[in-house]
Amino acid sequence: MLRFCDFVLRAVAPLVPYDIRRDWLREWRAEFAYTSARARRTGRSMPVTSFSRAIGSIVHALWLRWDRWRVEMIMQDLKHALRSLRRKPSFTVVVVLTLAIGIGGTTAIFGAVNAVLLRPLPYPQPDGLVRVYKTSLDQQDRVGGSVSPPDFTDWRRDNTVFTELAALNNASVALTGLGAAEQIPSALVTGGFFEVMGTHPEIGRAITTADDPMGSRDVVVLGYDIWRRRFGSNPSIVGQQITLDGTPYEVIGVMPDGFRYPLRSEMWLPLRFSARDLETQRGAHYIDVVGRLKASTSIEQARENMRAIAARLATDFPPTNRNNSASVHPLRESLVGSVRQSMFVLLGAVGMVLLIVCVNIASLVLIRAVGRGRELAVRAAMGAGRATLVRSLLVESLVLGVMGGVAGLVTAYWATTAIASLDPSIGVPLLNQTRLDVTVTFFAFAIAMMATILFGTMPAWQASSLGDVVSRIREEGGSTTSDPKRQRMRSMLIVAETTLAVVLLVGAGLLARSFDRLLSVDLGFSADAVQSFAVAMPSAKYAAPGQRQQFIETLVSRAISHPNVESAAAVFGLPLTNFRFSISTSTRDGVTLSDDDQDRLTLQVRLITPDYFKTMGIAIKRGHVFTVSDRLGTERVAMVNETGAALVWPNQDAIGHQLEIGTRFGLGGDRAGGTIVGIVGDVRDWGPAVPVAPTLYLPYAQWPEDSMTIVAKARNGDPSSLIQPMRAVLQGLDRDVPMYSVRSVPQIASNAVAQPRLYLVLIASFAGTAMLLAAIGLYGVLAYAVGQRTREIGIRLALGAKRGEVLRMVMAQAGRLAVVGVGIGLIAAVLASRVLRSQLFEIAPTDAITYVAVAGALLLVSLIASWIPARRAARIDPLAALRHD
Amino acid sequence: MQAISGGYQYGFDIIDQTGLPSGTVYPALGRLERDGLVKSAWENEHDAHAEGRPARRYYKLTAPGVKALAESASFYRALLPAGKPKPVRG
Which residues on A lie below 8 Å from B22 (Cβ)? Predict the structure, then answer.
């Protein structure tokens, strides 16, 4: 132990000011020796105490050093630092801006990653929360797959791994009777839901299993936000009735602030299954299932248990379940699984920027400090010790670091706020929870500071270690070339920077090309002047199909009669709204299909009014569209898109043929379908990157649903000019039917590519920053080198070298660095761009055009960056240069 | 200072007596010494050699140090509730 303590003392001693170092060593050695002697005497060993006291010696040494420096530092060095920074404003500004970008960018992106992927979900014991999915045997572990009510009921009864399992379904209900009607995003939940989430109402009670039976009282639990917004935070609302979809519901509870699951819902209503549902709906998969694992159960055990239950149900109910299995995934994964990879790629990209920032600062500060070698040597000659020189540069680096840190904090705050306020429809869940993360800000700050301090003080160590001060002064003043060792170090930094910049630029280039391809995809409709909004008819008031049909028909005809409306229609399932409603074909031309064929011929179903295709600009390929005479009671008709026609009747003309779809859910009790009267062009319903689905269109008048989207095309070309007139039309018809999801079709289309756009913008701005920093770094290194070689170049010119040759010589130096950096960067990019594969649309990660363009762009930028110092070199006056001391 | 007031004190004894870490005690001693409230000296070499160890440095209060200690003691006493000063254990 004593030997360890002595080792620590000797290691720390150089920190202690020289004049008191001997006393310090003597005191500590004596104290340790005394302690050890005493321990020997009393027969006790004291390793822990000795260890902690050895640490104390380090603190003491640091304190002595600080105590000696304190006064001089604050007064003298600070003044000196500020003066020298002010003397080189461009250097100071570049370093501070670079730090701001590095610290600000890293912190903001990490804040987003933290909110989306890392921070625990805002529910108690979030690790136990899982989603349970119905999957198929060939994709057993898939994330996603809605569940049918009978399957859910059996899962809940038979599992041994969950403390509770609950079903839920998204809904949207109209709140009326309190001022303007409003459509509220809500969730229908079974009794165990709040128990699963582990969150209880702040006021009143939750929905429990006692609310599950069909015919129980209609109750609702309010979210905190809507309670505040619509009910003025009135606690006595609990126990009162409110009107939802025309039916009275008793408010039984209010959830605490911040509780949101599903993420958009503001109210929770009971989800109930009738005995008939449970008997007949095993094939109707429309509910989501959440569960809470028992404390001792692993997710793997839960998976096994659920798979076993699914296998048993497959044997018991072969027609609906024979291919089914079940999967269990953490709730977080189901929420953010789809964006996980892109978030980590972003984090990696911003990490690279931070790295470049550090390299750049290192190279800038190094150049600046080495350029002051003469100053330092003179100061050393005047008697300044190595420690004093280090201290002086340390203070300067600290000042620089603090300025950059403050600028970084401001940037981080601004960027974080910008991320958190992005439109939630961009589709990255929890992104609006992004906060300024203190740990990360500090981390980024510390790294950048370290780079500043390390590289800023390095020359001082060298300056005084050379010892032979005189030769050094002479060397610094009259050198013909710069020190090759240090030049190599700076060159390596530039190559590293260029390499990183190439990787980022290739990533940005690939994403840009992919985005361009996305935008050039023909979506199958052309509706730039179309405004859309949704209406939901309260089920109590519009119970009969005829009432619903009447309402929509009147609404559309009144919309059309507005002078600014060119055409208008209603649709159940607007494109690009992530709407999915698929039903398998049950009979084709009167022949019942086999089970396998029924599944294979699954069609997306859309309900439309006659002018839908005209309003949306969707091409009619063959046959004719529905007319107003296609109504309830007349011959059933249908239309298909081209993909659907080719799927169901390959190599035949679909017109005149018949088909029926299995009514799994939603369209009343009858089998839907009819005679095909027309074929329309394909529409990219789920975005440009998703293949077209075979789609069946049915006339709304024959299949009246209760929630529809109205589309209206403006004559003046400006869709937003229709919002007010359409609201008036709707209110004139029924004040209790709210207008919601008010968006123009161009907005919807732009939203459909919002995620790739955001991704592209972020990566591209990182890459642009990287390129700029690399250029600044290259410029700095060359400018310095030219400065150092002034005398050499002067001699060359005096001996007859042409100015063009000098220009070429300097540019060639830059060119070599750039070529090496770009070369290594391209290889690194081939390896790194693989992580982008899933983000790219119709572009290979090895796309040659991108690589060539990036290489060309970086070389060009390098040439531009080297042009200024090269020209300065070529303009050197030989006489002045030779006189240069 | 209270710890040193009892007489000569060595660094580690002060640490043991106050229960403060060595990284706190030594800088504090350094500050007191700089302000002239404490002074230090080396113990007699012979005594140390008799125990088979090097000589240790001890600290003691100076006259201004004694005065400062008395002042701060009365200051802290004044912070106590009116009446007799409560007996301090230890």
Answer: 52-53, 55-57, 59-60
Strand partners, A134: A326
Quote the CA–CA distance of A331 and A13 in Å, as a whole number: 55
pLDDT at A256 (0 to 100): 93
- The residue behind tokens 């030989």 is A878
Residue A300 tokens read as 């793997």
Around A697, how many Cα atoms within 13 Å sit in the side-chain half-sphere? 31
> Which residue in the set A30, A60, A67 is minimally distant from B57, CB to CB?
A30
Question: Which chain B residues are closer than 8 Å to A58 by Cβ?
Answer: 23
Residue partners of B64: CB distance under 8 A and separation at least 6: B36, B37
**Rounded Cα gap, residues A833 and A232, in angstroms:** 53
State residue A718's pLDDT score: 93
Task: Compute the mean pLDDT over every residue in chain A, rounded to the nearest whole number.
Answer: 85
Instruction: Report in angstroms the alpha-carbon separations of A479 from A367, A783, A795, A875.
Output: 16, 16, 12, 19
**Structure confidence at residue A471 (pLDDT):** 53
Query: A103, A411 in Cβ contact below 8 A?
Result: yes
Report the distance separating Cα A118 and Cα A579, nearest Å: 30
ipTM of the predicted structure? 0.76
**Which DSSP symbol is given to A249?**
E
3-state secondary structure of A618: coil
| Burial of A150 from C-beta contacts in 10 A (0-12 / 13-18 / 19+) | buried
A785 burial (CB, 10 Å; 0-12 / 13-18 / 19+) is: buried
Instruction: Check B23 against A26: CB less than 8 A apart.
Output: no
SS3 state at B83? coil
Helix (H) or strand (E) holding A607: strand A602-608
Alpha helical stretches, state H, chain B: 2-5, 11-18, 22-34, 45-50, 63-79
pLDDT surpassing 70 at residue A468: no
Q: CA distances (Å), A805 to each of A277, A785, A791, A801, A811, in order?
A: 88, 16, 16, 7, 10
pLDDT of residue A475: 52
- Which stretch of A231-240, A262-271, A422-431 has the lowest confidence by average pLDDT? A422-431
The tens digit of pLDDT for each residue in A348-364 reads 888 888 888 888 887 77
∠ Cα A570 A575 A577 (to 5°): 100
Asked if the bond preceding A319 is cis, omega within 30° of 0, the reply is no
pTM of this structure: 0.70
Least reliable range by pLDDT among A372-386, A575-589, A663-677, A815-829: A663-677
Portion of chain A with pLDDT greater than 70, in percent? 93
Cβ count within 10 A of residue A87: 9
* Residue from A686, A737, A715, A683 nearest A531 by CA: A715
DSSP assignment string, A619-657: PEEEE----TT--TTS--EEEEEHHHHHHHSTTS--TT-
At which residue do the structure tokens 């699984």 appear? Answer: A337
Determine the residue type at A691: P
CA A433, A337, A222 angle in degrees (round to 5)? 50
Q: How many CB atoms lie within 10 A of CB A136?
A: 11
**Which of A59, A64, A65 is best to mutate for the B interface (most B CBs within 10 A)?**
A59
- Residues of chain A with C-beta less than 8 angstroms from the C-beta of B34: 67
A–B interface: beta-carbon pairs under 8 A: 66
E strands, A541-601, are: 565-572, 582-588, 591-592
* 8 A C-beta contact, residue A858 and residue A521: no
User: β-strands A267-270, A182-189: how paired?
Assistant: parallel
pLDDT band for position A466 (50/70/90)? very low
Average pLDDT over residues A183-208: 93
